[in-house]
Amino acid sequence: MSAARRSRLSTKRKFVADGVFYSELNELLTRELAEDGYAGVEVRTTPHRTEIIIRATRTQNVLGEKGQRIRELTSVVQKRFDFADGAVELYAERVQNRGLCAQAQAESLKFKLLGGLAVRRACYGVVRFVMEASAKGCEVIVTGKLRGQRAKGMKFGDGYMIKTGHAGQVYTDTAVRHVLMRQGVIGIKVQIMLPHDPKGIQGPKIPLDDVVTIMEPKEEIDPAVLLAQQAAAQSASMMAPPVMEGMAPPDAMGAPVEDPNAAAGF
Known about the structure:
The protein is of the alpha+beta class and 266 residues long.
């Protein structure tokens, strides 16, 4: 949608239009970049242009030879969504750890099944790879006509998985894919429980609610030592000579006084 039309929209319609734009763009890139490890897209809108960051495991394939493929994708997005010339830019970003990316693992499992690998072996391979990538937990659900004419569902999991509450939204990465097999459509759902990362690179910065960190206690001073220190300070103050008001301390009284006339040369 062009910037001129978007500026005339009401707030409610703008949110709906942005959601539809993201959904269509994600669907387009999912179909186009499936074999290149597509792992999601991020849209950043600035006053001058719209930046689209494509996350993938093989960014070189997304860019193409001398950047030809990314230019073709930019042209397709510009024409489809009615952007002005130079108003949209596409960038490719490499996924740091593909073992913690649910979309990359769902695509991997999809191509394994299309290649004829057994369902159980393919799913256990994905679960093992995810857990070796320092994930807290992983769950893979496959449904459809797996063997024979009767459709059924199989669930493979390992580790720790939170599905409800705010932690379920923040810590769980989910991806769903449909595999068009000869016998019918098979559905894939991959869920990965991300680890806690204070830097926010591998996982969320926010710690889990039920994680309790016990701090090391501070060193306590022995009461006998504290009383001895107080008594020593009190005895030292009692032995010091009293200073009357208007009088200089003993050290100042004993010091020689310099004559100002002698200092001036008179």
